[in-house]
Specification:
It is a single chain. This protein is α/β, with parallel strands linked by helices. The chain has 4 domains: 143 residues, Rossmann fold (3-Layer(aba) Sandwich), CATH 3.40.50; 125 residues, Putative Large Serine Recombinase, Chain B, Domain 2 (Hect, E3 ligase catalytic domain fold); 125 residues, no CATH class; 71 residues. It contains 14 helices and 17 strands. The strands form 6 sheets. Strands 2-1-3-4-5 form a 5-stranded mixed beta sheet, sandwiched between helices. A 3-stranded mixed beta sheet has the order 12-16-17. A 3-stranded antiparallel beta sheet has the order 13-14-15. The mean pLDDT is 80.
Length: 495
């Protein structure tokens, strides 16, 4: 009697064992049964991927194709439900395929012949119902655990480690400093790409010892785990039939009121105030046009309307760039009347206003300033930057030692994590000193003049649009635009 083996792990199997271990154990049992009964094993199908429907199981489809071609007298499985435990449609496909080819299903306890018994129909219904009940019990258990503040969401995010005894999370400080720095840099005005560059250039690797990418930063920033919240049930899965008639599953986002949210479940890495500030900042960035967020025009996201306060958009046309008319409409539907103008006129007005500011600053009384304190801070900054260079070199040397096989992987990971934590702390110290230098006794008029002159130099040298856009944002706190008739008025405030 020619048979094949079909192996697949189910929910009833031990979660402690890998798919490979479970399949190997089942294969031994089935081979012993085949040997006792004198069956000749022609093929072995090992299903290593999960999935309820036949369409999602490649080995199942291959086996059914062979059954349809009448290559076997029987298919040997540990139990009938390994073949299908899903919907009635899949059950019908299995039954018809085996019945038409006169192929038997042989389990460890019985043999099913579709041409002699209707027992399969009844068993399939029972198994399908049992599957639904099992899934419901599992989901209910997960929801109860989430409401108790336990961690139920798989691998914890960077900065945390799962504690099996408390079923909660504990902070991994060497990773937590990285998370805190990411939030701090967003508040300081850095975008995703700048943060990724800082991490990768600084030799700060991901958990898998790879490079950072923008999507990883995007996942970290809105994650409420970092403020100690246990959040579960953001989405649900539903079945649908695609254009080819195949049954598939898709994830549906649920409104927040349907989530399970339990505050104070885990130790917080980020305080609530910082988290909310970052969320507000990111939401505001989303309101900007994509070109403005990427800084493709020098004035992207810079010029606001003097009448309603909304940002003006930049548009390219055949005659050059244009500052578009304000397109804001009030809740009553009234459109703002501030008209647009050629960008050359805006640039002309900015230059004129900067000239006036320079003249005012030159003629203003000189402010007193503690030069001694500033020099001390500058010396500290130079020392910290030198220390940072040494730490970055130390990470590279650790990498070299590992590549040469001079240290084991565990020691490599421990030493590298320690140095990476020191790098983040040092960068934080440097940032704080730089802020102190900028804020020492306030900026003098001479410093403001230096900033304006540096900005004008960049403008004159025609640096690329991204750099000039960054310079605009650094120098100006506000640029308000108003057009009345043909007269253009700009109101400028410096940072």
């Amino acid at each position: 009697m020619d048979i094949c083996l079909y192996l697949r792990k189910s929910r009833a199997d031990s979660k402690e064992q890998s798919v490979e271990d479970v399949l190997a154990r089942h294969e031994r049992s089935l081979r012993e049964l085949a040997e006792r009964n004198g069956y000749r094993i022609v093929d072995v199908f090992r299903e290593v991927c999960s999935g309820e429907s036949i369409q999602s199981r490649e080995q199942m489809k291959a086996m059914l194709t062979n059954v349809q071609a009448k290559m076997y007298d029987g298919v040997l499985v540990t139990e009938q439900s390994r073949l299908t435990r899903g919907n009635m449609k899949d059950g019908g496909i299995v039954q018809e395929t085996f019945k038409d080819s006169n192929t038997k299903i042989i389990t460890l306890t019985k043999t099913i012949d579709f041409n002699e018994s209707n027992m399969y129909d009844f068993e399939h219904i029972i198994n399908a119902r049992e599957l639904e009940n099992t899934k419901r019990r599992l989901n209910d258990g997960v929801n109860r655990s989430a409401k108790l503040g336990y961690w139920v969401s798989g691998v914890p995010p960077i900065g945390y480690l799962y504690n099996s005894s408390t079923k909660g999370l504990e902070i991994v400080e060497s990773e937590a400093v990285i998370v805190r720095e990411i939030f701090a840099r967003v508040l300081a005005g850095q975008n995703y790409h700048e943060i990724v560059a800082w991490l990768n250039i600084g030799g700060i690797a991901t958990r898998k010892d790879g490079n950072w990418h923008v999507n990883q930063i995007k996942r970290i920033l809105p994650n409420e785990t970092y403020i100690g919240y246990a959040v579960h049930g953001r989405t649900r899965w539903e079945k649908f039939t695609d254009s080819n008639g195949e049954e598939k599953r898709r994830e549906i986002a649920l409104p927040r009121e349907q989530w399970t949210v339990v505050p104070d479940s885990f130790p917080a890495i980020i305080d609530k105030e910082t988290f909310d500030k970052v969320a507000t900042l990111l939401a505001a960035r989303k309101q900007l046009p994509k070109r403005s967020r990427e800084g493709r025009h020098p004035l992207s996201g810079v010029v606001s309307c003097a009448k309603c306060g909304h940002l003006h958009q930049i548009q390219k046309n055949s005659n050059g760039n244009l500052l578009k008319a304000c397109n804001y409409r009030s809740p009553e539907g009234v459109r703002c009347e501030n008209k647009g103008v050629s960008l050359s006129e805006v640039y002309k007005a900015i230059r004129a206003e900067l000239g006036k500011l320079q003249e005012t600053l030159v003629n203003a009384p000189k402010a007193t300033k503690s030069s001694g304190q500033r020099k001390s801070l500058e010396r500290q900054l130079q020392r910290k930057q030198s220390e940072l260079t040494k730490l970055t070199g130390a990470v590279q040397r650790i990498n070299d030692l590992y590549e040469l096989g001079d240290i084991a992987r565990l020691e490599y990971l421990e030493r590298k994590a320690k140095r990476q934590g020191e790098i983040v702390s040092k960068q934080r110290e440097i940032s704080e000193i730089q802020n102190s230098i900028r804020n020492t006794s306030g900026l003098t008029n001479e410093q403001r003049l230096e900033y304006i002159e540096e900005f004008c130099r960049q403008w004159t040298e025609e640096v690329n649009d991204n750099e000039l856009n960054r310079a605009f944002h650094k120098l100006f706190a506000k640029v308000e635009y108003l057009r009345e008739g043909e007269e253009v008025t700009l109101t400028i405030e410096l940072n």
